[in-house]
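A reminder from the course coordinator: this example appears on the midterm review sheet, so study it carefully.

Given structure:
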């Protein structure tokens, strides 16, 4: 049995020598999340009790619940849309945080050992204040060593156990920005609803720029829409995600001013391989000659792409 050390905020915190049964998440560069304004990190799927789950980590606390200066972690039901209407699942969720100095785990769970209930209107449950960021960051506590931390999960549904899976989130060392320039000539003569640039490489991946001259989705017939697309998402290993910083712009060819620049940080994956803006620039503004976006029927589009990190599913070990 684990040794109980303290209760607060309705949580029980204990220590255990045993690793988590169902899932392990290693974050090799925790500061990468905060430095790149990543509010939330959502892990890959894992199995427990006949269901699929994910861990959701808020590195600076869940601001939607007014949490500050703490790490928030939740258990999320994955593939909930495949369950029958009216489903409800009660779980005993235990979160693990490895003390790398001592080789033992801090185990966080409900102080009263209450079951947590998930259903269609509540797809995730968990802990708003797992640990204060100050305590987490102190090296002598062992939770964050060389910018690396190890989280784990145990999820018991009717006390069923299954073999665990694992995942590792890593920073790409010496990540640098790749810039691609795309020249579109005879613009008004092009008939395609979507124009695609040639392939270019950034962060070891192939990318394309998608441009919709008459817009798409919310920008249809009112805006030019511009997106960044991961060109070969099928080549990613299953469950992989790429933390990507990107900037898209349509160049002002008259004075070079950066008037149309839009930037974002997001996760690209096989299931979410295209991100951008349906309302990138209004059609009227784009076509106005004084703005310099369309000069001699030629348009210049630029993309700046930096891949900061990659999350990969790891093969389970015996």
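Designed residues:
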């Amino acid at each position: 049995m684990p040794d109980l050390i303290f209760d607060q905020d309705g949580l029980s915190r204990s220590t255990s020598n045993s690793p988590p049964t169902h899932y392990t998440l290693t974050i090799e560069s925790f500061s990468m999340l905060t430095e790149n304004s990543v509010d939330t990190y959502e892990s890959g799927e894992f199995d427990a009790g006949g269901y699929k789950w994910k861990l959701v980590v808020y590195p600076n606390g869940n601001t939607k619940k007014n949490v500050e200066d703490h790490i928030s972690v939740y258990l999320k039901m994955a593939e909930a849309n495949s369950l029958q209407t009216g489903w409800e699942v009660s779980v005993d969720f235990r979160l693990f945080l490895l003390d790398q100095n001592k080789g033992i785990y801090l185990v966080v769970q409900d102080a009263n050992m209450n079951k947590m209930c998930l259903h269609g209107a509540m797809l995730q449950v968990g802990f708003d204040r797992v640990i204060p960021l100050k305590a987490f960051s102190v090296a002598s506590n062992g939770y964050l060593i060389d910018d690396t931390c190890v989280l784990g999960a145990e999820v018991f549904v009717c006390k069923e156990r299954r073999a665990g899976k694992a995942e590792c989130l890593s920073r790409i060392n010496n990540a640098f920005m790749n810039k691609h320039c795309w020249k579109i000539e005879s613009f008004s003569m092009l008939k395609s609803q979507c124009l695609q640039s040639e392939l270019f490489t950034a962060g070891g991946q192939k990318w394309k720029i998608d441009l919709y001259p008459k817009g798409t989705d919310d920008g249809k017939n009112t805006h030019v829409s511009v997106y960044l697309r991961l060109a070969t998402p099928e080549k990613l290993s299953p469950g992989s995600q790429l933390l990507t910083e990107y900037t898209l712009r349509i160049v002002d060819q008259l004075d070079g001013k950066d008037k149309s620049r839009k930037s974002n940080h997001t996760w690209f994956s096989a299931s979410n391989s295209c991100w951008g803006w349906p309302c990138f620039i209004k059609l009227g503004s784009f076509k106005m000659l004084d703005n310099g976006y369309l000069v001699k029927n030629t348009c210049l589009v630029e993309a700046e792409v930096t891949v900061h990190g990659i999350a990969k599913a790891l093969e389970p070990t015996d």
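Residues 1-6, 159-163 have pLDDT under 50 and may be disordered. The radius of gyration is 23 Å.
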